[in-house]
Structures are given as C-alpha cells and as structure tokens.
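Working notes for the structural subgroup meeting. M.R. asked for a predicted model of this chain before we commit to crystallization trials. I am recording the input and output together here so anyone reviewing the notebook later can reproduce the run.

Input as submitted:
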Amino acid sequence: MLTNINLPYIALAVGSVIFLYFILAPTNPKKDEPWNKLDKIGVSSGFLPWTRATFASCTALLRNTHEGYHQFCKKGLPFALPTMWTGKAIVVAPISALHLTNKPDSELIGYWALVENIQLPYFIPDRNVLEHVIHFEVSRKDLTKRNVNRQLTPTAEELDNCFSTMLGNSTEWTTVNGWDMCGQIIARVALRTLLGFPTCRDEELVKTAQHFANNLFTAAAIINCTPPVLRPILAPVLALPTKRYRNRYREIVVPVIKERISLWEKHQNTGDGELPSDFLQWLIARAAQHGPEHMDASTISYRLLALNTMFVYAMSFIFAQTVIDICSSPDHKRFMDGMASECKDVFGRYPGGLASDDALEQLHRVDSAIRESMRISDVSPLSLPRDVVGNTPLDLGGGIVCPPGTRLMYPSQPIHMDPDFWENPLHFNAFRFSDPFDKEAEGSPPTQSDGTPKERENLVDLTSTFLAWGYGKKACPGRWYAGQTIKQSLAYMVINYEVELIGKPPKRRALLNAMIPPTGARLRFRRRVW
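Returned structure, recorded in token form:
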C-alpha cells in the first residue's frame, strides 16, 4: 500500500524517468543516414516516433524482427530496426546478403559489436585484454581438430566425475535445478580444458567461474536496455556483483599461471619435460610471441576469464536448452531411448566409448538433437553483427548505402523458423537431421526436392539456413570444441540416466536481443537400468 511518506519519492522517480526520456531520447535520423531510404519496423507515427520505438525495442525487438523478416527479408530486402542496444537503428539484412560477412575487417568487423553485446569493458578492467585478443588467436589456431580430439579423454573423465558426484548411482529420482546442474557440468569440463587437472577440481573455482559468467550476462542484458549515454554511470553499478567473482578467480588462478610460465620458460631453455596440452599452456606460448608485456599473470588470468565466460555461458545455454527441449517434447521417451540405444550400440563397437573420436562421430541422433535445439531455441533473434568501418560506405544495392558506423545484423531466428527452409519448423524434432539417414539404411536414401542425394548436416556444419555458429570464413572458431563437449555431455547423460522435466516447459522470452535462459526449469534424474 502507498503511504504519504513514499509518494514523494515515487513522484520524483517517475519525474526523473520522464525527464531523461525527453533529454536522452533519440532524435529522428539525419538526412544522410541509411534508415531514411529503408523500410522501418517498430516506428509508428505520432509524438517522438523514433524515441518510442527505441525504448520499446527492449521488449518488442523479438516481435519486430519476425515481422520485418516476413515483410522485407523474404523479398530480399533489408529493413531498419531501432534498438536501445546502439541507441539508434540497425540494418537487418536478408539471407541473400550473407556473403557480406566474408568482407575483410578493414571494411566490416564483428569483434567490437560482440564485445559491446556482453559489455565486456565493464567487467574486464584490463584494456590490453580487449585490444589484443590473443585468447581468440589461440581459439582459431590451437583449437585444431587434433588438439580438440586430445580433449576427448580428459572430458570423458571429467564428465564421469561430475555426474557421479552430483547425481550418484541411485535408481531413485533426484530433483535438481536443470540450468544450475547443466552449468556446473559445463563449467567443470571447460575448466579441465582451460586450466587442466587438478585445478579444474577446485570447487570454489568452479562456482566462481559459473557465478561470474551468469552474473555478467544478466548485467549485460540490462545494460543493453539502458540509454547509451547513461551506461558510463549505470553500468559500473550493475557490474559490481561480478567484481567479487572476478577478483576471487584471479586469486585462485594467478599462482597456477605463474607456475606454468616457469614451466614454459624452463622448457624453452632446456627442452626438458612435456608441456601440458591445455588452453592455458597454448595461451602462454602465444602471449610470449606477442612480447613480454603480455606475459603478466594477472593479464593472462583476465584472458582466461573472458574466454571461460563465453565457454561456460554459451555451452551451458546450449546443453541445458537441449535437455529441456527433449524433455518438453511429447516424444520425450522416444528421443531419450533412441539416443541411449544408439550410444549403447556405438560404444559396444568402439571400446574407447566417449573418449573415441570414431565413436563420437557415429552418434548421429545425439548430434541431431543438439543441432535441432540450437535451431529452434536460439540464443538471440538477431546474430552475426557487423559494423561498417573505414572510409568506404557499404553498398547494399537498390540505392541503400550504409556509411561507416552502421551496424548490420541478420535475422537468424526467423530464418531458423521459416517453413520455406524447414518442414514443420515450430515443432522440435530431435531426430530431424538423423531420421532421413536411418531410413537410408532401410533402403530409402534421402533426397532433396530436385531428386539429388541429400548430404547429412552435422552439428558443427555451416549453412545459409542454420546460423547458430555464424557463417562463412569468420564463423565461431571454437565450434568444434563446443560441439564435441556438448555431444559428449549429452551422450553420457542419456546412456546413464533417465531424465524428466518437472512441471510445464519454460516459456521463452526475450530482453532486447537476448533470449532469457530457462533458469527456473527443474529436472529429475535416476540411474538408467539396462
């Protein structure tokens, strides 16, 4: 109930919001901006149309993206979409313009848009980490197929430890928070790859890494919904909860990093011993190539934290959402039993089990379930952000020219749900990518609409209608590691446990361009009896 005491404060707060609304409101675009020649979505007539559209984007961007896609992108046309993320409009390009993602960074760059999407400068105080992305260089050059395969055995060991510790071997049902459990498993496995054994078993480190990642993405989503001119004031306050986790993470890993640097230096001088095969050791070697100023243990810890955050959150989102999508389906039992029987059969033929690359490649149903979940449960409605840079405007054709400073994006979620590309696109079919080839074994080889043989789409494959990993030459360089890890995690789960969702499936909601993860979903597990 309102009282006379708090009414003045409420009136002051409302008045302040209204004042800021008009003072900070985005004005109508200038004559030379591309939005004047583009069709616009979300901008209505009346008082301060661009202002209202920009503020409304915090809750309306999902709906506006789908509307713009069907009105314009389906006709091969771009459209303008006001958004609070940039404080102005962005250009949403059609699928026919995907080739632009291959343009050189001197013309069209995605890095700073991704940094801004998670507002990393407010969480990682070392500017050196942001401007010299050595950790991404390691992802591109050292997370090769060979090195990724080397992680099969450590990951399999870590998964066995994780599940046994968290769920045990009881044939009675155990109820857990699905998001938290999947996040803990991914955090432990990711730390095994990043920092090696036994550091990855440090319980405080695991919780610290997971809490930092979750808090960062929550705060970043809220920061993106505030006017850009207010962010230097509000963002540091919103980022405060992560500071404690960041500092504790650094306290734990800096001694480990210093020890590894000494090990690397000794190996360089004498050639003695074998260096660990994990991300930290690759990062130290790469940092050394860039100069001694990059060998500071604290700076390296921030690089690990930045990458760990992306590993933990992104892989946790995919893994948790896949499990929830499967359990939410009316065909839940068929999907779970089908994957479990496939795992049992494959592991019976390949003694290495989850540690065998040959075995993992044969888990087509598991592979399909993850890819299908990534298709129908996107992380965001729009993806592949690119900023026009340099001095040359970007020509989109049709008289549309985007000057430097324009942000270009692609409507990935509507593409993933387009019936022209996908049969029954709103229906989750875990075996969408494997069923046609299972039928091939029965004598019915899959074909395309023109009668030509159909090629299997595997989890990490890139196509113009599946953009979850990006597209073209600059697609996600860590997708082989992420795909392999999530695939191992799901395979271990289905062959060893029965899993059910408690209650109704969580409803998907968006905050600006971020789909809110299913943090409240509850799952129950019990040991599978064969």
